[in-house]
Specification:
Layout (H helix, E strand, L loop, with lengths): L5 E7 L3 H12 L6 E7 L6 H6 L6 E5 L5 H11 L4 E4 L5 E2 L3 H11 L5 E9 L5 E3 L11 E3 L3 H7 L9 E4 H6 L11 H10 L4 E12 L18 H11 L5 H24 L3 H9 L7 H11 L3 H15 L1
Parallel strand pairs: 1-2, 1-4, 2-3, 6-10
Antiparallel strand pairs: 4-9, 5-10, 6-7, 6-9, 8-10
Helix pairs in contact: 5-9, 7-8, 8-9, 9-10, 9-11, 10-11
Length: 317
């Protein structure tokens, strides 16, 4: 069996309009020693046919057993051949130097638990912007992040699924992606790794995160009755005394941000009362203004809030 340097995992479910772009972005990498494992979750569109149309022996397609994106990714990792696994969502794309940058980071920092490149966000109107990072040295720096949780608590996520790679052994050690969640499963993986290992980061823009794509999980507007999986993971780690002192305060703030975001999600789903309960239990120092904003929005009657939100979407399209 020929061992590729890196395995690329792509979950596929009703992403027919986008999967071709994602695969082309992988095949256009400056680094070419890889395999691509596409796991199909029962698409009702042309996505699987698009994958089969690529005449490249490095691309394999298999059908997952079970449901959900976490199951798909975990099963794809099991099938992967390399000892380093990179993830790409079927509606995102890589810049040509993404894998080259990931492997450079690994060569410099073999002690890291995951490796990530910077990403850019393409909005619904087609505008592309850079992610707003905090607590990371200024570009063109690359190296081990000073504090992953502080960066995540103060700015946009420093790591996204389409922009990261992880040694297969570490992925298995932390249990992979949690099963049974539709929200926060990626943050749980990142957080479990960051609690145990340093995180390597490069300012090289390796990813375009497409908010303009269709059928994204982040566009789903359903109430979230339970905490994100990593909130539970983090609280258990704190109670067990397993969090290093320099991570404790940033981790608590990161938990608070996750709960504020859960409140916003419930407001969007018309569950303002539930949002208020979440916010009243949430203590934060860094994101106090965001909490106040959520409390104000929760006071707006749900029918009026949903009407205003619908009108805002029409205006900004």
């Amino acid at each position: 069996m020929i061992m590729p340097e890196i395995s690329v995992v792509i979950p596929l479910y009703n992403k027919g309009p986008h999967i071709g772009r994602a695969l082309r972005s992988v095949l256009n990498q400056t680094f070419q020693d890889f395999e691509v494992v596409v796991v199909e979750g029962g698409s009702a569109d042309e996505g699987p046919a698009v994958v089969r149309s690529f005449d490249d022996s490095r691309i394999s397609l298999f059908y997952q057993e079970g449901t959900g994106v976490s199951t798909a990714r975990n099963q794809a990792v099991e099938r992967s051949k390399a000892d380093l696994v990179a993830f790409l969502d079927a509606d995102d794309e890589w810049m040509p130097e993404h894998l080259e940058t990931i492997l450079r980071l690994r060569g410099k920092h073999p002690e890291a638990g995951m490796y990530a490149t910077a990403y850019r966000v393409q909005a619904m109107d087609g505008e592309v912007r850079s992610a707003e990072y905090r607590e990371i040295p200024e570009p063109p720096w690359e190296g081990l992040m000073p504090n992953y949780f502080k960066s995540a608590a103060l700015g946009e996520n420093p790591v996204i699924t389409s922009g990261m790679a992880v040694p297969k052994s570490i992925f298995e050690e932390v249990g992979g992606f949690p099963i049974g969640y539709w929200w926060g499963e990626d943050a749980d993986l990142f957080g479990k790794i960051a609690l145990k290992y340093p995180v390597a980061f490069s300012w090289v823009a390796g990813v375009i995160y497409h908010c303009d794509a269709s059928n994204r999980a982040c566009d789903r507007r359903s109430p979230l009755d339970h905490e994100e999986p990593f909130v539970k993971t983090a609280r258990e780690a704190i109670e067990a005394g397993m969090v290093p002192p320099d991570l404790l305060e940033p981790l608590i703030e990161y938990i608070s941000l996750k709960e504020i975001n859960r409140a916003f999600l419930n407001i969007s789903a018309g569950r303002s009362y539930d949002a208020e309960v979440i916010l009243k239990q949430c203590k934060t120092r860094y994101n106090h203004k965001l909490k106040i904003k959520a409390l104000i929005m929760a006071k707006i009657p749900p029918p009026i809030f949903l009407f205003l939100k619908k009108m805002a979407r029409k205006i900004w399209r």
